[in-house]
Amino acid sequence: MKVALFGGTGFVGSYIIDEILVQKMTPRILVRKESQSKLFQRGENEVILGDLNNESAIRETIKGCEAVIYNVGIIREFPSKGITFENLHFEGAKRCIDIAKDEQVRRFILMSANGVKKNGTGYQKTKILADEYLKCSKLNYTIFRPSLVFGDPRGSGRPEFCTQLKKDMLDLPFPAPIFHTGLNLLNAGNFGLSPIHAKDVATIFVRSINEKKTVNKVYKLGGDEYSWKEVIMIISSAYGKKKWTIPAPVFAVKSLASIFGRFAWFPITKDQLTMLVEGNICFSKDVFDMFSISPIPFNSESLSYLKN
User: Fold this and answer.
1) Which of 66, 99, 152, 260 could form a disulfide with 266 if both were Cys (CB 3.0 to 4.6 A apart)?
2) Residue 91 to residue 71: CA distance in whole angstroms
3) Which of 129, 93, 118 minimizes the C-alpha distance to 108?
């Protein structure tokens, strides 16, 4: 079986390629010319050069495949470079869905996100637009909505939450912020997250291709629940650091993010902060049971890559 993969050079995408190969399938990956070096499994993939604005490259990637996985996602926009939520989360997905239909490729797996909603941030709104478009496509779809995804990014140029948090906040010579929205400082950092390892996400994505139970279903993907304060402590201890924390009022940080969030060096955008303090909790015991997966725990051992 050949599987067309979009987003194969990203963090989660590298794990999806691994699982496609484990399942004795052949990945055919759309890759921008400048991103070829990010592919770990060279010689084991069919690579099509191009991008999501190139319909002929998308068609070449999908043609002759039996399934499509759309795993494209960005965490912040850079409109001057053409990197926008609208283009990558929705328009790119729409092109791939339309061409999959035209090429009669019936199976389509979509990477969405937990917490997507029509009245949310730009990230959330464009993700749910893709979800809804796929649902109306008459393809045999499965939509997965992960919470925080963690795991070894395996090389530079692969944004991963824990690595970025370590670099942008925890390695700096001042206390880590525990955000709060109200006046009660005791509630600072109490919003929850449900981290899930990229390997588990990849395993679920690829195995679902041939699992009839998952057709035309939407699943949330997450592990055990941790508060923001606990996430900071677990990440810090994973690379041997004791990190002090300090309450940080969301309104003040958002004010700074409104000014500096368009710059890559600023650690967080206004929308990212909005989504973070909303919380991102879900647990997926039913999905893990379906595929007989023992989820990789969020602990110092599974975060040992942070020592590098």
Assistant:
1) 260
2) 13
3) 93
pLDDT-derived band at 156, boundaries 50, 70, 90: low
Q: How confident is the model at residue 172 (pLDDT cuts 50, 70, 90)?
A: confident
Q: What is the pLDDT of residue 44?
A: 79
Pairing assessment for the beta strands 226-227 and 192-193 based on DSSP bridges = antiparallel
- CA distances (Å), origin 39, targets 69, 164, 190, 221: 17, 21, 38, 25
Q: Which residues, including other chains, have CB under 8 Å from residue 301's CB and lie 6 or more apart? A: none
Own/partner contacts of 83-92, CB < 8 Å, gap of 24 or more, are 85/122, 85/123, 85/125, 85/126, 85/127, 86/122, 86/126, 87/52, 87/53, 88/52, 89/123, 89/126, 89/127, 89/129, 89/130, 90/126, 90/129, 90/130, 90/133, 91/52, 92/6, 92/52, 92/53
Going from the N-terminus, what domains does the chain have, and what CATH number goes with each? 2-150+194-222+283-291 (3.40.50.720), 161-192+226-278 (no CATH)
